[in-house]
Design brief:
With 254 residues, this protein is of the alpha/beta class. It is built from eight helices and seven strands, in the order βαβαβαβαβαβαααβ. The protein has one domain (9-249): Rossmann fold. The model has no long low-confidence stretch (mean pLDDT 95).
Length: 254
Amino acid sequence: MTDFARYPSLRGIPVLITGGASGIGAAMVEAFARQGSKVGFVDFDVAAAEALLNRLAPLQADIAFEPCDLRDIDALRTAFARLDAALGAPLVLVNNAARDDRHGWDTVTPEFWDERMATNLRHQFFAIQTVAPGMIAAGRGSIINLGSVSWMMPQGGMPAYTTAKSAVHGLTRGLAQDLGKHRIRVNAILPGWVVTERQRQHWLTPEAEEKHFERQLLPDLIEPEYLANMALFLASDDSAMCTAQSFIVDGGTV
């Protein structure tokens, strides 16, 4: 196993991760816990969250979980307040939660569109709005929004998802301007095709993998830990002068 970097500036600081029970989010929870951070996470999948907590129990890390459907902004605020009380006001927010369900453009209803925006975009803004006052009081903070390269490629077959993820770019740049004077950095991570268990179950067929590698320059699948490693860097003081940027982790997809 590769011996990845350790960041002394992450030890003991409160970190909040959305959608932390599985996939990329779970990799981030583990990565920050291994750095010695105090990690809080929210998710609506309670069973997956409890399984993750059990798996990470040997680390004896300071980890707290609150169940939450992020489409409900009042529930988001309540869950964040409970994690704040348990761990302290977060100095790092990772807006990770999203779902990339495939859908045809011709089947989208107004109701489906609004639900996809609530699932993939709206909660990112209100999560930032909720944690920013604590960061302002501390005089520092790092906010990391998960975007996607799907809208840049371009990729079809999920127009509501790619629209929401393209909007993360504007959200990141705009709030970096608004919050920069408080030494709060706002950046985005844009993953390529990350091989989570969900991807393996639904879309990672031998044929799809072969077609994908016709476009990806590096001949290896992107595992969730590589996104977690980028999040660690952007959360740490090592990236102190990085803000309003999008960091692509896609194996060189062309």
